[in-house]
Amino acid sequence: MTATIQVKDGIAVITVDKPPVNSMSLAARQGIVAGMEQALADASVKAIVLTGKGKSFCAGAEIKEFNTPAAFAEPSLATVIEMIENASKPVVAAINGTTMGGGLELALGCHYRVAVAGAQIALPEVKLGILPGAGGTQRLPRVVGVELALNMIVSGTPIPSEKLAKTALFNKMVEGDVVEGAIAFAKTIADTKPLPKIRDIRIDFPLYEGFFSFARNTVRAVAKNYPAPLKCVDCVEAAVTKRFDDGIAFERAAFLELVTSPESKALRHAFFGERAASKIPDVPEDTPIRAIKSAAVIGAGTMGGGIAMNFANAGIPVKILELKQEALDKGLATVRKNYENTLKKGKLTQEKFDERVGLITGTTSYDDIKDADIVVEAVFEEMGVKETVFKKLDEVMKPGAILASNTSTLDVDQIADFTKRPQDVIGTHFFSPANVMKLLEIVRGKKTGKDVLATTMGLSKKLKKTGVVSGVCDGFIGNRMIEQYSRQAGFLLEEGALPEQVDKAVEKFGFAMGPFRMGDLAGNDIGWAIRKRRYVEKPNMTYSQTADRLCEMGRYGQKTGAGWYDYKPGNRAAIPNQQVNDMIVAESKRLGIERRKITDEEIVQRLVFALVNEGAQILDEGIAARASDIDMVYLTGYGFPLYRGGPMCYADTFGLQKVVMRMEQFGKARDGARQGKSWVPAPLLAKLAAEGKTFS
Ligand code: 3HC
Ligand code: NAI
Predict the structure, then answer these.
(1) Do 324 and 454 sit in the same domain of this protein?
(2) Which tens digit of pLDDT belongs to each residue from 357-415?
(3) Co-location of 250 and 146 in the same domain
(4) Which of 470, 307, 448, 283 is nearest to 376 (CA)?
(5) 389 in ligand 2 pocket by Cβ < 6 Å?
(6) I want to staple 629 with a disulfide (CB 3.0 to 4.6 A). Which of 364, 399, 624, 668 is the partner?
(7) pTM value?
(8) End position of a domain, from candidates 442, 470, 498
(9) How many domains does the chain have?
(10) 113 SS3 class
(11) CA of 6: how far to CAs of 36, 67, 93, 405, 463, in Å?
(12) Which of 421, 441, 470 is the last residue of a domain?
C-alpha cells in the first residue's frame, strides 16, 4: 500500500507511504485517489488531512518514471491535484517534513496547509533541468508573491518552513505532532463554504514588464547552457499575465519540452549517479562502520593542509604531522591564510573561523597522533617515503585506526603490505585544492576491509565529498582516463592544431578548462615526470613530445609564469606565445607530418572518445563498478560539463555505434596509425555498440 486512510472523529487522514521520500509514483498517485474516493464517499467524514509517512511529506514526482509510460498514466499528478482542489470536502495538507517539487504542488492543490518548523520547502525541478509541471509555477506566486516564487523556482533552493510562516503558503504552523495539529485545524474549518482555492487568487503585479525583463537578463547571464531557468521565468510571467488555466497549459508545454531534453537527462543521470556511487555492490548497507571522531594527516604540503581543512570543516579535530618544525609551521600558516581569505570574503563567520582553526593542530611526534581514528598520509610521491611512513604508522597507531594514503599513482596494495594490517589500509585520493574539490576517489586495495570501505564512504559524505570507489590501477579511474585525453591533445598539436584552438573547442563543448590551460595550472612538469617513467615502462605507448619540448624550455606553467601560454604576474589570463607555437610547428616538421586544418568537432570527439574508450576498459576490468561512477569522477573532479552528464552518459546520448564508427575513422585517418591502439574500441564498448545497448 502506498497510501493508507484512517477515519476518526469525522476526519479522514490519508498518509502517503512510499519509502524513502514519498515520491509520487503511479502507485502513490493511485493510493491518494483511492483514499480521496473513500473519504468523499464516507458521509461521516467532514474533512480530509493529507500527510506523508516518515521524514517527508512528499519529495515530488517519481523521477525514475520520467519518460516512461508510468509518468503519463492516469491518474497523473495534475489529475490528483485537480481532484483534491475540486473536492467537496476540505483537504488540509499536514506538512510533516521535506516538501519538494510535485510534493509542494500537491500541497498547493489542497485547500489549507499546516506545517511543522524545519520542513524543507522547495520547487527544485530546475536542478533536474525541468520546471514544476503540476501547477507549481502558477500557484506558488499566488501565495508567496511573484518575486519570492520566482527566486524559489529559478534557484530550486529549499527554504525551511518557518521562514515562510508569514506568507499565505501556510494557514498555521504547529508544534509537536503535525497530523494531530492538522486534525484539530480541520475541525475548525470543516464547514467552510466555498472552499478556498489558490487558483482563484488574483495576482496584482502592475510593474511586471520591467520586473520580468530584468529577471530574464539576470537569469540568462548565469543559465548559459541550461534551458530550464529561462523557461521558469516565462512560466512565472504566465502566472501574472494569463488566466489560470492558460498558465497551466503554458507550464505543461514547457515541462514536456524540457523533460525530454539532453540537459535534463544528464542532470537526472548525475542525481542518481551521485547516490549510486555511495553504494558498493558487495558491501551491504548495514555493514558496521568505525567511529571517526579524530584524524591525523602526515605531511603539511599542498594536499596535507587542504585535507586537514576538510576534517576541521566537518568538526573533526585533526593533527598534522611533519618531520621538521619549519615545514610544519609553513603548512599551518598556509592553512590559516586560506581560512583568513574566506573570512575576509565574508564566507565564514569569526566564530566558525576560530572553531575551524582551533581544530587543526600540528606536531612533529608520532606519539601525538597514535590515538587518531583515521590517518591520511600525504607525503612525497615516492614509494620509499610511503614505506617509511606506513611502517611507522603500523607501529604506533591504535588498533582499528584507518590508515589512508593520498597517493595519486602508487600501488595501494603494495603500500598496504608494508603493514601487518592491510585490511585497515585504503586510498583516499583527494583532488587539488583538497578543501575545494568535491571528488574523493576511494581506492580499494585487494585486502581493504569492507568496514573500512563503508566507513570511508560514510566519511566522504561527512566531508561533503562525492566518494567514488576505484580499484587499484595506475592512475585509478580519473587520471588513468585523463592520460588518454592528454595524449590526443598532444597528437592534435602535431597534426595541425595549436593550444588555443584545442582549449577553445573543448571549453565551448563545456569543459571548465581546456587541456593546455589545465596543464599550465597543474604544472606541466608533473606530466613530464610521468611520461619519463612511461617511456621506460611502456615503450609501445606513443606520446607527442611537444609537452617534453615545452618543459625543456623551462615552461612549467603558471608557477614559472610561462607554459603553453604566457601569464602576467597575478593574472591567470592565458596569452598565446609565438615561440611555443613555432616549437609545435617544428615538431610536426621533425616527424614529417604535413599540418592540416582540424575542425573543432574532431578535437572534441577525439578528446572525449579517448576518455570513453578508456572508461569502457576500466568498467570491463571492474576498476569502476558502474558507468555512472566514472561520470561522477569526471563531473566532480575534472570539470566535465554537468549538462552533458559525464563522458559515458555523453557517449550513450551520442550513440555508441556512432562513437565506434568515429573511432574507426580516426584510426584509419592519415596520422591514426601513430596513435597505436587508441582507436581500437575496448571490448565492452564494441560489444554494447554491436548490441545497440548503452553503458547505463
Ligand atoms: N523520485 C525518485 N526517487 C527519489 C526522489 C524522487 N523525487 N527523491 C529522492 N529519491 C530517492 C533517491 O534516489 C534515494 O534513492 P536510493 O536510496 O535508492 O539511493 C532516496 O530517495 C533517498 O534520497 P537521498 O539519498 O537524496 O536522501 P536525503 O535524505 O539526503 O535527501 C531529498 C532527500 C531532499 C528529498 C533528496 O533526495 C532530493 O532532493 N530529492 C529530489 C527532490 C526533487 O528534485 N523533486 C522534484 C522532482 S521532479 C517533480 O516533482 C516534477 C513535478 O513538478 C511534476
Ligand atoms: P608536497 O610536496 O606539497 O607536500 C608533501 C609534504 O610531505 C611536504 O610538506 C613534506 O615536508 C612532507 N613530508 C615528506 N616526507 C615526510 C615524512 N616522511 N613524514 C612527514 N612529512 C613528510 O606534496 P603534495 O602535492 O601535497 O602531495 C602529497 C601526496 O598527495 C602525494 O602522494 C601526491 O601524489 C598526492 N596528490 C597530490 C596532488 C596535487 O595536485 N599536488 C593531487 C592528488 C594527490
Answers:
(1) yes
(2) 999 999 999 999 999 999 999 999 999 999 999 999 999 999 999 999 999 989 999 99
(3) yes
(4) 307
(5) yes
(6) 624
(7) 0.94
(8) 470
(9) 3
(10) strand
(11) 11, 34, 15, 55, 42
(12) 470
